[in-house]
Amino acid sequence: MHELGIVFHIIKQVKEVAKENDCSHISKVVMNIGEVSTIVPYYLEDCWKWAVEKEDMMKGCKLDINIINAVTHCDDCGCDYPTVQHAKICPECGSEHTWLLKGNEVEIKEIEVN
Ligand SMILES: [Zn+2]
Description:
Helices cover about 30% and strands about 30% of the residues. By secondary structure, it is an alpha+beta fold. It has a single domain (about 5-114), classed as hypothetical protein PF0899 fold (2-Layer Sandwich), CATH 3.30.2320.80. α2 links the parallel β1 and β2 (about 60-70). The model has no long low-confidence stretch (mean pLDDT about 95). The structure holds zinc ion.
């Protein structure tokens, strides 16, 4: 379960942003999580609830997760298709010359302070 490590990493980044902006409390963090990233949102939320209570400036801080649909691009026919249904083989032309356009994100989108 590496979600806890991710949570610590996010908290560290959020705290740095808060410090730079002179904020004393962070009320909400919004994250983009790609559909084919290795993160399980349920575990992430679980770790989050536990970890933020140990941080004075983040007590009660909410976590919102935006799931980013995974899309793969095919170099041979130029189409974009949903990665989860078709994986590496293009459904239009059967090519394997494909690459992940998006869906692997693990990033902070927004930080709300009060
Ligand atoms: Zn194709």
